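Structure tokens please, single chain.
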Amino acid sequence: MMDAARIAGILTDRYGLPVRGESRRAEEGPRMRIWPVHVAKTQGFAIDVLVGWRSVEAEFLPDNFASALVAEMERASAQQRSVFAAFSAACTRDGAAVTFAVNGMPVDPAIGSSWPSGWRTVSIRVVRSPVAVDQSAVEAVEDLAITWGGRALGLSLSLLPLEHDIAGEEEGGIVRIEVNRYERSTINRAACIEIHGAICKACGFDFGAVYGGIGSGFIEVHHVEPVSGIAPDTVVDPALDLMPLCSNCHSMIHRRKPPFSMEELRAMLAAAGEAHPVT
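Here you go.
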């Protein structure tokens, strides 16, 4: 059995939205379901994860009374659709297939401007296959659930209306995703790390390699264009406009206003004889 509490804790930390999890053993392999804590179970959604013998599958599952939620997903902004595309591209790059459908019809995750209107149903599914899975290695199984369940969660959160309440259908209820527990920048940060990895793009420092578990996945995220200079309606591309930096490099890049460029920072490291990745 997967440690559902551990996995939920990691994903809560990653996305800034409290989630809980339940795991069980199925015939196909270990399964886990993840729910946001502060959303009514009948009106929200879950992420279902299966770690099979040769594949890992993660799927967005709207609840029975989640039509209001689905309707709000249709109204995702250009920024949200850009982040969705970034998560999808990261999945594809790492060998997974992303299936995105609206009203039962396939939709291209990368072209948000082409998405249809009148959403009644939405399907988001991530499949990584083939993948070697030793189901007796519990920690390895959990890592796969975190990676691919986390990406399905990121895809889903990128489209969700996390900035206001949504009128629900069940007895006139309200679907409330706590704004004070979540900032839109958090999903951008998570997308940046999924795309670039949690390794400093300037010097190559890896917190996990140095500090072990406590540092795994930790990195700071730098805005290539300072936040103060970004117009309100600017669409931030997590692949180009955000970069993971270690604390030292992040501090140094901001020693000047405007900040140094990544090329300038790398040149400083090269002049000092420090190794850095070529990207």
